[in-house]
Amino acid sequence: MENSEADSLAISQTLDNYFKSIYEGDVDLLSSTFNAGTLLFGDVKGQPYAKTLDVYLDGVKNRQSPKDSGKPFKGEIITINVINSIAIAKVRVKMYDFNYHEFLSFHKINNRWVIVNKMISDVTE
Fold first, then answer.
1. What is the set of domains in the chain, with CATH numbers?
2. Where does the source fall among the domains of life (predicted)?
């Protein structure tokens, strides 16, 4: 079992791009953090949430970005756990009127860490 600092740092950098792209609505940068075919599941405001990556990216493309909305935004890494070529990151994203807790699964593909699954839940704080 290997958990290198370099891998954790690379995942952190991917997450920095993930947060930045969500905040700015940069779909090209956001797309680069995911593996094609990634699925997204969870619940938002108590309602089931299930999307393909393409549907999710289209939604980001066609909404007002958090940056342009003027509402607070914060992306925060809680934990990153790496085992060989797989990893999971627990993050929080506060945007619009949502407070998301997310589990993002990563896989190292072609020497690059990408998100291969996203699970979210909107919580009240």
1. 5-122 (3.10.450.50)
2. Bacteria
